[in-house]
């Protein structure tokens, strides 16, 4: 019944809610005072290992610790 | 014409009472009878496995009179800030504006904007800055607030906020694509909300 006319500006620009929410959370974390800031940023660090598979066999995995994208 | 309108009036109300709201949960979880039978046939001596639903406490039913306190569950992805805490009032910043919730509030779902959440209990108020999230108020005066990031106001560094605001204002003017403009706008929104939280 209601039209989807009033979309938020971030959705109109092609961003999803999750991306928007994560950007907001990162900005807030970056504005914290010192001990809390390093705690928060280290809490959100993501470590993962990637291994490509060829011919049904995994190759040697590489470990990545990307900080979450903004 | 007026008489027909009056005749139609009670009917929608009765229909609405018969329909249950999506925010209501069934009062108690009963185990699945067919599963129990099948389990007992195969493994009569062992207890059946518990399902996640059996670990969850069913939501208390809606009382007939307004309860004296609001029960708040305030959760973050990494911690549970408040767990079934009884409070007098909660004020949140929703996308539609500041909203205050008292016990007996109508069932509501609200999306939060970056802003201050204040929990009022007796004469004390605890304030948090919430980055974004949702608040669900249920008919039985239980409020579930879920936020991605929430910090007490004294953990926010005012200088970083000012710097961020200046940065993003500059980014907005130099942005070219829609996405960059949106990101800069988000930065401005969050930092100005942080600013007003610190000063207000």
UniProtKB/TrEMBL annotation, chain A:
What biological-process GO terms show up in the record? proton motive force-driven mitochondrial ATP synthesis
Give one GO molecular function term.
Answer: proton-transporting ATP synthase activity, rotational mechanism
* Predominant location category: mitochondrion
What InterPro entries would the database entry show?
Answer: ATP_synth_F1_esu_mt, ATP_synth_F1_esu_sf_mt
Transmembrane region positions?
Answer: none
Subcellular localization, as worded in the UniProt entry? Mitochondrion inner membrane
Keywords carried by this UniProt record: ATP synthesis, CF(1), Hydrogen ion transport, Ion transport, Membrane, Mitochondrion, Mitochondrion inner membrane, Transport
GO CC annotations, alphabetized: mitochondrial inner membrane; proton-transporting ATP synthase complex
Report the sequence similarity comment from the record.
Belongs to the eukaryotic ATPase epsilon family.
Q: What is the protein's known function?
A: Mitochondrial membrane ATP synthase (F(1)F(0) ATP synthase or Complex V) produces ATP from ADP in the presence of a proton gradient across the membrane which is generated by electron transport complexes of the respiratory chain. F-type ATPases consist of two structural domains, F(1) - containing the extramembraneous catalytic core, and F(0) - containing the membrane proton channel, linked together by a central stalk and a peripheral stalk. During catalysis, ATP synthesis in the catalytic domain of F(1) is coupled via a rotary mechanism of the central stalk subunits to proton translocation.
Indicate the quaternary assembly: F-type ATPases have 2 components, CF(1) - the catalytic core - and CF(0) - the membrane proton channel. CF(1) has five subunits: alpha(3), beta(3), gamma(1), delta(1), epsilon(1). CF(0) has three main subunits: a, b and c.
Name the UniProt record assigns to this protein: ATP synthase subunit epsilon, mitochondrial
From TrEMBL, chain B:
Enumerate the subcellular locations listed in this protein's record, separating them with semicolons: Membrane
Name of one Pfam family that matches: ATP-synt_DE_N
Give residue ranges for domain ATP synthase F1 complex delta/epsilon subunit N-terminal. 70-141
List the keywords (alphabetical).
Answer: Ion transport, Membrane, Transport
For whether the record's keyword set contains Hydrolase, the answer is no
Q: Does the keyword RNA-binding apply?
A: no
Q: Which GO cellular component terms, listed alphabetically, does the Swiss-Prot or TrEMBL entry include?
A: proton-transporting ATP synthase complex
Listed InterPro entries: ATP_synth_F1_dsu/esu, ATP_synth_F1_dsu/esu_N, ATPsynth_dsu/esu_N
This protein's source sits in the domain of life called Eukaryota
Could you tell me one molecular function GO term of this UniProt entry? proton-transporting ATP synthase activity, rotational mechanism
Which family does the record assign? Answer: Belongs to the ATPase epsilon chain family.
In Swiss-Prot or TrEMBL terms, this protein is called ATP synthase F1 complex delta/epsilon subunit N-terminal domain-containing protein
List the top taxonomic levels of the source. Eukaryota, Viridiplantae, Streptophyta, Embryophyta, Tracheophyta
């Amino acid at each position: 019944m209601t039209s989807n006319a009033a979309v938020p500006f971030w959705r109109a620009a092609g961003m999803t809610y999750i991306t928007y929410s994560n950007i907001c959370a990162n900005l807030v974390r970056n504005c914290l005072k010192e001990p809390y800031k390093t705690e928060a940023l280290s809490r959100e660090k993501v470590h993962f290992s990637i291994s490509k598979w060829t011919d049904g066999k995994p190759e040697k995995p590489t470990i990545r610790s990307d900080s979450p994208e903004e | 014409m007026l008489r027909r309108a009056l005749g139609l009036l009670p009917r929608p109300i009765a229909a609405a009472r018969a329909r249950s709201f999506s925010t209501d949960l069934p009062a108690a979880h009963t185990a699945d009878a067919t599963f129990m039978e099948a389990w007992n046939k195969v493994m009569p001596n062992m207890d059946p496995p518990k399902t996640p639903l059996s670990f969850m406490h069913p939501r208390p039913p809606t009382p007939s009179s307004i309860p004296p306190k609001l029960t708040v569950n305030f959760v973050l992805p990494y911690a549970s800030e408040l767990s079934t805490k009884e409070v007098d009032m909660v004020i949140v910043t929703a996308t539609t504006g500041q909203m205050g919730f008292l016990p007996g509030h109508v069932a509501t779902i609200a999306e939060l904007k970056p802003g201050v959440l204040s929990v009022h209990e007796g004469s004390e108020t605890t304030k948090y800055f919430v980055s974004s999230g949702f608040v669900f108020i249920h008919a039985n005066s239980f409020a579930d607030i879920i936020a991605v990031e929430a910090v007490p106001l004294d953990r926010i560094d005012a200088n970083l906020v000012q710097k961020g605001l200046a940065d993003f204002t500059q980014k907005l003017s130099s942005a070219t694509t829609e996405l960059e403009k949106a990101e800069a706008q988000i930065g401005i929104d969050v930092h100005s909300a942080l600013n007003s939280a610190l000063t207000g």
